[in-house]
Amino acid sequence: MLDLGTSFLASVERDPDAMAIAEGEQTITYGDWYRRISALVDGLGQIGLRKGDTLVTAMQNRWENASLHWACQLAGIVITPVNWRVTADELDHALRDSATRVLVHDDAASDAVAGSVLAHGLTVIPLGGDQGLAALLAGHAPDAVPQAGPEDLSVMLYTSGTTSKPKGVPRRHRAERAAAIAHVAQNMYHHGERTLGVMPLYHTMGIRSLLSASVIGGAFICLPRFGVPGALDAIETHRVTNLYLVPTLYHDIVHHTAFTPDRVACVRKLGFAGASMTDGLLQKLAEAFQPDLFVNHYGSSEIYTFSICQDAATKPGSAGRAAINQRLRVVPLGAADASETCAPGEEGEIVACMQGDEAFEGYWNRPEADRKAIRDGWYFTGDCGHFDDDGDLFVTGRADDMIITGGENVSPVEVESCLSLHPAVAEVAVVGLPDARWGKVVTAFVKRAGDVTEDDLDAHCRDSDLSNFRRPRRYVFVREIPKSPVGKLLRRLLVAGEYEAEPTETTPA
């Protein structure tokens, strides 16, 4: 297996004149990009970074950030990207936990850097200025030579922390490249594909898009910050051929007034991950894009791809079957190991084989997290799901999100998919709220797209194939559904009452 630095050199040698990266009107070929990245590798060495050192970044998806990712791969530096919306406390946790020596940031993270206690004792490199990242990229240096091997660490990602501090997920060069190769194969990417680089480079989806583009001599079209007009302009200007996004961004694109199918006619392949997609959105995307391929990816920072469904719109809700580098099982909830499996249709916890080529090997300095998640060679995902009679996997939500009402288990995802098919529902999130009689009562938070009442939605559920005990008993109409920066529903905020309800006397237009 090649290390990522050597893999990038192979891409440069195959396609030196092909467009490798673009941002706005700027386009850079593989040959030119390698020269700029080589200058950056030299600059990192000049400030004292060596193979095995850690570098933390807090940056948007600009071409300089993508360049830094590749420079670290060539230099053998472990890049540790964090959300550019990071707070000072969150940044300090990453700096302390990763034992970094250098922090690189752009203006979006300036406030957090200024408020960080630990940043003041590190080498801090901003985007601009005489000694900034842009200046290092503009320098001159001999062609960089790969310093890392396949077994060296490439990147460390931090998982989203909800009840505890985020956990570091260190990943080796061989696992990162295996994931990129699998991504190309499972999405049927061809030579020269162009992908919209909007999923953040602190997230598995953004990194996978960046690495897989290089494998096929393709282009990564940077979009530093998502906005539908800017995304549509980038797609049209650079003739983007594939999209790999979270469902929230797809929702925003197809519901925007600037969207028309002809503006995205160049896009022939759709992929999504990061969250389940409702039946209603699946249908709308299939009609609007009419893609040649519509892929549902199910995975995590730890393993990357668990399963793949390559025709998502045909079997809504299905996560498909185990990916080419993986084996999957569903085991009873609370199982001590992966030896006992659930029958088709029986819900349990989804577990993935740790022998897979894309798998991590354990969390960074968190042995208690390893003991909880890794058992006898299997990774316990914390996700609930079941296999159907065809052998396809259905993910029904996080174990922590499961609603137990009157002794029955209710999956929020199933209820959300049902409600999403109502034409007056723009977005929906379902949670369980405390109830003296039922323990938890199924509650739907709805962002309306038109005139609709609780009675209308209840009638819609009654007329569907949704079981009676799964019907929401409460509805709350809200202005927005809370989401994370990468589009995941933040159900815990709804449970905590952190939302803005629509005034009861107001009827949507």
Automatic annotation (TrEMBL):
- Entry's Pfam families? AMP-binding (PF00501), AMP-binding_C (PF13193)
Q: Which EC number(s) does the record attach to this protein?
A: 6.2.1.33
State one molecular function term (GO).
medium-chain fatty acid-CoA ligase activity
SUPFAM superfamilies per the UniProt record, alphabetical: Acetyl-CoA synthetase-like
- Source species, domain of life: Bacteria
Task: Identify the InterPro entries for this entry.
Answer: AMP-bd_C, AMP-bd_C_sf, AMP-binding_CS, AMP-dep_synth/lig_dom, ANL_N_sf
Q: In Gene Ontology terms, what is a biological process of this protein? A: fatty acid metabolic process
Name of the molecule in the record:
4-chlorobenzoate--CoA ligase
